[in-house]
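Morning run. Coffee first, then this:
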Amino acid sequence: MPPDPRAFLWDAREAAAALASFIAGRSREDYLADRLLRSAVERQCEIVGEALNRLSRSAPHLAARIPDLARAVAFRNLLIHGYATVDDATVWRTVTEDMPVLAGHVGHLLAELGEAP
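And here it is:
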């Protein structure tokens, strides 16, 4: 039996929600000064990217409905494989500007499919 694509959407949504809570009330300067926060943010970005990558393999018709899915997966790959060259300012911009939009698309699709992972 193939995996339920809602599980991947749920994982991506939960990781995006964790990101939002981690950065709430924080500034870019706070982020840059806090190694633990940067590590936590990067980990949740990795989860978002991996969940969407798995969605694209198991349900490409659904994945195609998420704009910038390929960018999220590529960002995950950069964080994991290019860890030595990660630009913290780029991560902050991605998390504050791009992730809320991506999370909205994921949440909308999950709501349309039904919540249960």
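The chain is about 80% helix and 0% strand. Good start to the day.
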